[in-house]
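Q: What would this complex look like in 3D?
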Amino acid sequence: MQEEKKTTKNTVWSFFSSVRLTIALLIIIALAAIVGTVVPQQDTAREAFQKLPPALAGVLKILQLSDLYHSAWFLLLMALLTVNLVVCSLNRLPSSLRLYRRKPDPARAGLYEDLSPDRILVAGGSPEDETGKMERVLGKSFGSAERKQTDQATYLWGHRGAWSYFGVYVIHAGVLVIILGAVIGSILGFDGNVNIPEGGSADRIELRGGKGAMDLGFSVTCDKFSVEFYDSGMPKLYQSDLSFLRDGQIQARGSLMVNHPLEFNGISFYQSSYGAVPGEAVLKITKKGEQLVRRAHQGERFEIDGGKAQVEILRIEGNLMRMGPAVKVGITAGDRAVSFWVFKFIDAIEEQNPMISKQVPQFNPGLYKPYLFELEGVESSYYTGLKVTRDPGVPIVGAGAFLLVAGFLLTFFSSHQQVYVRVDRRHGKTRVSIAGRCNRDPVKLDRAIDKLIRSYRGEIR
Amino acid sequence: MNTKMLGWATVIYLVAMAFYLIRLLRDDEYWGKLATGTALFGLFLQTVGIGVRWWESYRLGIGHAPLANFYESMIFFSWAIMVLYLVMEWRIRSRVIGPFVTPVAFLSMAYASLSPDEATRIQPLIPALQSNWLTSHVVTCFMGYGAFTIAFGLGLLFFARRFVSGPGNPSKSRGSLFPDEGSIEELIYHSTIMGFIFLSLGIITGAVWANFAWGSYWSWDPKETWSLITWLIYAALLHARLVRGWRGKRIAVMAIAGFVSVLFTYLGVNYLDSLHSYIM
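A: Here is my prediction, written as structure tokens for the whole assembly.
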């Protein structure tokens, strides 16, 4: 039983310690991500899927393709990659530690064979003197040198950059920390939108992905919204002046611009969009000799005809059916109720369709006799579109990115360079042979040894 | 002024490309030196052109680095390829990659010069692009694309060599024109590392910027997703080589596949609905 458990554990461990699995997962995740860029996602998916045959839409829904990057199977792939990364790193760490701690024998066979002639120097001094010189030079550029004495020769070993064995673990740690930050952000954070008309305020936001609304616990007022345009009509700058209120008291104020978010109470606000909303409608109401000009918002009610009739502004449109500004009014007088549209450009509309107000009573601005309604205009006002988020994972992801870059530098721009020196006597002269070993970038090591020889020669002369 | 200079640089790159090709076919270093000289002159003209464009944008009162629209990005793409290529030519003391890399630089410039006049004009920045992160993000991304282009050129070289002299490393015959397969693959590996680091930096700077501008460091926007796909492909290449010991043909194939992904990240994404679409 015990034995069986152990083998299962070993099978699972060896499955996850395979780099073949890593490569397969990297490619599968890449392919899955491609699918997600082709199939509409989230909000756009809801509209697009309605046009599809129900069977196909059903399949796409079961595969969670409309929110692929948050689907169970995609998260599973990411989880597998994470486990794979951890297991592989743990599996390889001991051998890297061994390499890091290893003290190789500078007298081992084969090291000084096949050296190029410029790596074998003939020196004038005694072996003892030359070893001392070389030890100093080696110590200067490689930190320290270890000495080994045999009957035939004296050996030196110097090395630097042994920590480069750990660069790859720093990279992997960086990736894991980024994933950790993303997970923390998705659990503890939120992400939503709110549109606030200029002068208006909001204390709730709409969460992204149709997850409902959320109370902020304070309210945000858009005191002023301004937008500037270039001559070409492109927006140059847009800005919302916001106040943050709690219990009716202003706690903070600030100007919000694109690329310059504001933070209040740990929640970040971003200027993400803006738009125009129809504001007040200006109506002119006439009855033989009597004239009334009235400004009203959508939903507002007022009385005419000496209180006998109630007028309600049902809708205000900036551009209804491409016929310009229009207002729908509803009038109730006792048990009589009518509703009709009042267009600003009614004269032009009637010129094109002379019979329209007769044929379509809804378009007849004189439907409530004897009053005639005219629309002077609709004043448009701006709303500001804010993105509202809280993501406690951001600093963690940042730390992960930092580790990732540090790991790249360690892995790709540093190497463990080892220099072995043998000093012995040959044909009555002192001979210094220099060999090098490294885990990567042999050209760099060659240059380092050239430099070493130059400074050693400098001491000879 | 600047577009005229950039137009001339395009023509000069075409000439350099022809010289590199003649050098390869005739095996004559005379043409090689001519090619390098021409390429250097083209790069000089292009650099000045970009500098003048930058300066002109300040004179117009809308000063920004010329990295803000599709036209400018193609110019910079070509610049990055040429800088990285010429540095590599100097480091490895061989001109053999030239015929495979200069065409990409030339095509990028040529495609840019086909843009309608309106697109080549210096345009002011929309609010989302008014950020200090614009320059570092675009420069790192395109240096990455440039390095991957060189890896791609080397991948082509690898197969061109096989086509001419068969697999393996014959010592004589026409195959000697080319470096041996091992060296080509080693260079693919080094260019890929360079590209991978730059792409990572590009994604990181982009994430920082997105966190300021869009309120989220990652939104699975198609361009973001495709940059991740590209990153994953090259990560797979590096792991395959470093740990699984893949060599030669497989690495060359992956370098070419990776470049297809780079092109899609750069160009293809514009046909998808993307937050990055103002680059078009």
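A: To summarize the key features: The domain at 126-279 of chain B is CATH 1.20.120 (Four Helix Bundle (Hemerythrin (Met), subunit A)). The interface with chain A takes residues 123-124, 126-128, 130-131, 193, 196-197, 200-201, 204, 207-208, 211-218, 220, 222, 225-226, 228-229, 232-233, 235-236, 239-240, 243-244, 269, 272-273 of chain B (CB under 8 Å).
Q: Very helpful, thank you.
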